[in-house]
Amino acid sequence: MNAEPRSELKCIDCCKVFSDAAVNRCGCGGLLDVVVDIDFLKEKISRELFDSRLGSTKFPYMSGVWRFHELVNPLIREENIVSRSEGNTFLYTHPKISEYTQIKNISLKHEGENPTGSFKDRGMTSGISAAKHLGKDTVACASTGNTSASMAAYASLAGMNSVVFIPEGMIAFGKLSQALAYGARVLQIKGNFDDAMALVQASANELGMYLLNSINPWRIEGQKTIMFELIQQLGWNPPDWVIVPAGNLGNTSAFGKAFCELYDLGLIDKIPRIGSIQASGANPFYNTWKNHLKKLEAVEKPDTIATAIRIGDPVSWQKALRAIKHTNGVVEEVTDQEIMDAKATVDSSGIGCEPASAASVAGAKKLLDAGVIDSKEKVICIITGNILKDPDATINYHLSKLLDITSRFNNPPTLIEPTLAAVRKEIT
């Protein structure tokens, strides 16, 4: 057994191993995995270790990511960890959600409770900490919003420069405002997210910027902790299903990797099934899975109200497909109508979410209706972003102003005269 943990990156295509932790892609074009030293970790970790850190006020264990330090990046020293006490997000149940989906045992894990309002903070604390460990001073990403907000915040906290590539006119203002406020250099690209993604990769290689999209393997290591924390919250008893929105497919990839590692380490005795849910207007992964394609066929002009998953050429599709296969999972698509109706249900439950988040709830309902999920199974839906990430979508739904969407569960304001009689008429 090794006296110290190893840190290797391995190409998922040609299996070449890299010792350079700054590499994001293999020369063959394949994505890289962080190779976990299972034998070493078996001697170092336990459920009891992680449980002992719950509620800690000691840095870095107060973080829901760095509580699992050994499973994220054991080579990162504490002085290089950049954290905002991310994670520690709640599980919610509500009769409205159960009634809407017809799934009795359904819960929502709300990653919108992270510091910048989305799950991205989990991957970003890992990615920025890796950048600091490597001595990087400038980081970059392409983003539909949440990644840019998170990267800008963590980069500023670490004293780094950040450069954000966004698709012109295709980003919610609630998210763009964060990137600007946190001090990022924002470049608007004439094109969609996939154009921005291609350009940021070329720019990072040419200009020496450290790329922090989910192509970065250390991002995936941070996002794994959504599942580590979930399993811990459930008393180390895995659910039957985890349903997650699917855009660039970082979470689908991370969740599959997390479950396989937890199982190999003996921390869980079964692997949950993953349901990866795409918007029907941005569904290349769904088409790949459904039609048993050997290679992903990009959607040239992705179109959905769920801006966070409006991605036509996801870079992590191979890792995500591996995760679906390893977990006996499924891929489904939902319409914008289904997304916004599910969002209205989540919102009126007092929980709230951005549109992309609601794809998980809409997807759970659709999988139940199709007989894929049994109504008695334990299902966890991942809520990926805060309700204030895209307030325009919320307001326009309730005002019945969304094109091609019927506001079935709207709650519009009522204009009244400034009299007690008018109030009495409305509320009695």
Summarize the structure.
By secondary structure, the chain is α/β, with parallel strands linked by helices. The protein has helices at residues 38-42, 47-52, 69-72, 95-101, 120-133, 146-158, 173-181, 193-207, 217-223, 225-233, 250-264, 284-290, 317-326, 336-348, 355-369, 391-398, 420-427, and strands spanning 8-11, 17-18, 32-35, 91-92, 105-110, 138-142, 161-167, 185-189, 210-211, 241-245, 273-279, 330-334, 378-383.
Any idea what the radius of gyration is? 21 Å
| Assembly type | single chain
Q: Any guess at the CATH architecture of the domain at 91-117 and 219-398?
A: 3-Layer(aba) Sandwich
pLDDT < 50 stretches: none
Q: Which fold name fills CATH's third level, the topology of the domain at 91-117 and 219-398?
A: Rossmann fold
**Proportion of beta-strand residues:** 5-15%
Which H/E pattern describes the elements?
EEEHHHEHEHEHEHEHEHHEHEHHEHHEHH
Number of helices: 17
Overall 3D shape:
globular
Biggest sheet: strands, sense, closure? 6 strands, mixed
Report how far the terminal alpha carbons are from each other.
73 Å
Q: How many distinct beta strands?
A: 13
Mean pLDDT: 94
| Main sheet: strand order | 4-5-13-10-11-12
CATH class label of the domain at 91-117 and 219-398: Alpha Beta
Helical proportion? 25-40%
How does the helix and strand content classify structurally?
alpha/beta
